[in-house]
Amino acid sequence: MSEPxxxxxxxTSTPKELVREPLVLxxxxxGWITNQVAGIVEGDMPxxxxxxxxxxxxxxxxxxxxxxxxxxTGVGVWGLNHPVAWGWAIxxxxxxxxxxxxxxxHFGDSFFAPSEMANFG
Length: 121
Fold this sequence. Notes:
- This protein is mostly helical.
- The protein has helices at residues 32-42, 47-73, 86-100, 107-118.
């Protein structure tokens, strides 16, 4: 029997123009990104965060106190002791709140109020 023919080597390298940079660099383990993201939440809070939280909490308590004072005292706190001045509160609620709520919550008020005003009298 004859000997098998020698197999020639086939070049399997990628051409230089088709070589791309790797998408994931540094050969990091799979849990690395989890540790990076969770480390922000699970780490110690900076001192400025506690100070800012304390200030905002005090402002919230003051706001609740002012709202309680308004409810117990009445809208005279706003300076609405004159009946015509009520228009300012209505305009603030109906028209300005329309923009804060993306125009959905009080559309009926802002749509029918001009027609009611036109028929007034």
